[in-house]
Amino acid sequence: MTRFRRRRTAASFSSDTWTVARSWPVVCALSTLFALLVACNTETLKSISTPSPPSASAPTENAAVAAPSSPAASRSEKWKSLTADGLHDPRSPAIKLLQQPAEALAPLPSDEAGNKVDWIAALDQGLINPRTNIRPDTHINVLDLDIFLSLNGALPIVKFPHRQHTMWLDCENCHEQIFKKKAGATPITMTDILEGKYCGQCHGAVAFPLTECNRCHSVLHRDFKKALAESKNKVVVRPK
Fold first, then answer.
1. How far, in Å, CA of 183 to CA of 149, rounded?
2. What is d(CA 174, CA 197) in angstroms, rounded to the nearest whole number?
3. Edge-to-edge strands, sheet with 157-161
4. Are 114 and 210 within 8 A, CB to CB?
5. Does the global pTM surpass 0.85?
6. Per-position b or e across 99-127, b if 16+ CB within 10 A of its CB
7. In 3-state terms, what secondary structure has residue 221?
8. Of 169, 161, 124, residue with least CA distance to 145
9. Residue 218 contacts by C-beta under 8 Å, 6 or more apart in sequence?
10. Nearest 5 degrees, angle CA 220-CA 187-CA 149?
11. 3-state DSSP assignment of residue 138
């Protein structure tokens, strides 16, 4: 039996063309997805086969790791060397015989004022022992006596400790030329101190500067009674 193939008419061709046209976006999407998958697999293979170079910030096995600096080493930057302080002649061969400030001062208690050393703390901790005399027969009297001044001022009350001062100085350094021994007999004002009188003869020159107000005005008014109780020997200068 002879079978006859059906001839495709123009209508059938147009119908097939429309079907292909409708499916073309799907074909494009699938092709794009396939291309992306191939590209991703290629990059993955490259990353596996090719080791990444070591990071510049990450230390390698043989790289030297810098040791953390000690507090004394970091503090040594506060002091200039003798060849750069503007006071010593850097060309002098004798400068090699002198001790550098950082070597001498860095181990002592830190301070932010003056020469960056808290000398009172160093004294109380026994880190320094000031030489009291150059003659064996000389005797220095250390006086443990606190003077409380400026009771009615806006700033905290002044506490003057004789002990710390007399461990450095003899009584004659201050009495009677600068201060009268009698409590309240010397009319001390901040104007005079800023002009280099009274306390200003040392503070700002060889002792901590006058910008450190809390060093002298150290007792809050609300803590005055407590400070008096903690002080073994004291004199209170009442305002006239």
1. 10
2. 11
3. 217-219, 157-161, 146-149, 234-236
4. no
5. no
6. eebbeebbebeebeebebbbbbebbeeee
7. helix
8. 161
9. 156, 157, 158, 159
10. 15
11. coil
Reading the block at residue 114, the tokens are 């003056």
* HSE toward the beta carbon, residue 4, CA cutoff 13 A: 3
Q: How far is CA 135 from CA 132, 168, 171, in A?
A: 9, 16, 17
CA distance 74 to 170: 36
160-219 pLDDT, tens per residue? 999 989 988 889 899 999 999 998 899 999 999 999 999 999 998 888 899 999 999 999
The C-alpha angle 32, 36, 39, rounded to 5 degrees, equals 140
**Token pair listed for 210:** 């006058």
CATH of domain 139-236: 3.90.10.10
Q: How far apart are the first and last CA of the chain?
A: 144
For tokens 């290629």, the residue is 42
106: three-class secondary structure by DSSP: coil
